[in-house]
Amino acid sequence: MSRSRILGIFVVAAVALATGFLVAGQVRAELLTPSNQLARYQALVRSVQDLESTNESARAKIAALRADIDALEGAAAQRSATTQALKDQVADLRTHAGLTALHGPGVEVGLANGIPGPDQGGQAGYLIDYQDVQDVVNLLFAHGAEGVSVSGRRITPLSAFSGSEGEVVIDQGPPLTAPIKVLAVGDRNQMVTALDDPSSLPDLRDRVVRFQVVMAVSGSPDVKLPAYDSSLQIPHVSTP
Amino acid sequence: MSAPPRRPAAARRRSGRAIEIWLIALLVALVATVQIRSQAEVERSLVGTDTTTLAFLIDDLHRANDALSAETADLTQRKAALQSGGSSAADQELSAEANRLRAIEGLVPVHGPGIVMVVDASGLQALDLQDAVNNLSAAGAEAIDVNDHRVAMGVPILQTPGGVTIDGSLVMPPWTISVIGDANRLAEAADLMTQQMRGDRRVRQATYRVEADVRIGSVVTQRPFVYANQT
């Protein structure tokens, strides 16, 4: 066997060895890791789905229990004038707290994501986020709204908005994503005027121009709001 | 008949080397393809939500579902009391709920554990106060007061030429924000908020303290509904 042949075999063996290490490295570093990542990701997604399903059924149960309690109180009120007077008081308080479905004249505000563009400040400006919804709801309450709901979630005196980019979490509900529909019952003209005012909602209006974020306002003679269907507990509050 | 001419040794060597090179190229191509496909698969599956966001979401949903469970237990108990008792049971339940709803709507003075935050700044806007109130509400605030003005969702916080108003009353800095709720959760939120505020050049002072009994004496004046009707 010539020297050049032996050298050739060594070169090929070295390259094969390097390739073998490369393949093994790939398998350990990349092929298995993505499959583990996928499995872990899928497990997280399943957890979210299970929790959302539990959340939905719990809220349905709460709504049913509140209806049952209302019926039982109604039956008791028919037997006692005192109970009837108390029930009337509570009915008014429940209406203001968002625990009763409402309807009346109002507005609908549709919010939808825009088109991705060059971001500023590391924020995805084309996405509708919880602060947009918070700003719209605050504006509506400040200009004649008597009740507000956001994509089927009724707003209460204790309501809060949170969420990461593109997600809107309201109270104990699962996250909402755009398109978001904000409904308000109240002084329709005052609300429409406030929403149309070019000086209101400056951040949202700016992103309407820059990212084509959608903010569509329409008045309606009869807007329907659902009742609040989550927890309204105040375990840390005492009255003197 | 003579045997077919054998290929020269040099030609055989060249052919062998070509095969070896092709084999190596094939292996490299295979590894590259698998690598690219694996990466693409991961990227496809992670579109939209990353695992950190999912983990936070799971945490939030657990907390939300715990709160819903507590509400369900409370309502079940109230239903059982109404079923077993007569009008007196109904009166008791209705009175208790009326008191609770008055506290929720800010119609009566309240007290309880919580935090008191003090923010002294010039140039802060209504949006800053709205954000602060929302952050505290998201951290479980059950009652909030700013400079002796009760605040709840629906109470207007507006920007006017004279400054920030709460339900029509001017609220000048420093803002003292008193909050009742789970003191640990509120303190976590207040800690983050004050840290952020101290990075804001407009803010002169941003502090908070945890208190065992925060007293809120201010109340909201409720206006009757004019447009809304019960369904």
Quick synopsis:
Chain A has 240 residues and is α+β, with helices and mostly antiparallel strands. In chain A, 52% of the residues lie in helices and 18% in strands.
Give your account of this protein's structure.
The complex is a heterodimer of chains A (240) and B (231). Chain A is built from five helices and seven strands. Chain A is of the alpha+beta class. Chain A has a domain of 125 residues: Protein of unknown function DUF881 (Alpha-Beta Plaits), CATH 3.30.70.1880. In chain A, α1 runs antiparallel to α2. By secondary structure, chain B is of the alpha+beta class. Chain B has five helices and nine strands. In chain B, a hairpin with a 2-residue loop joins β2 and β3. Classes of the chains: A alpha+beta (240), B alpha+beta (231). At the A-B interface, α1, α2, β1, α3 and β2 of A face α1, α2, α3, β1 and α4 of B. β1 of chain A pairs antiparallel with β9 of chain B.
Question: What is the number of beta strands of chain A?
Answer: 7
Strand content of chain A: 15-25%
CATH superfamily of one domain in chain A: Protein of unknown function DUF881
Which word captures the global form of chain B?
elongated
Q: Classify the fold: give the CATH topology of one domain in chain A.
A: Alpha-Beta Plaits
Extended strand count of chain B: 9
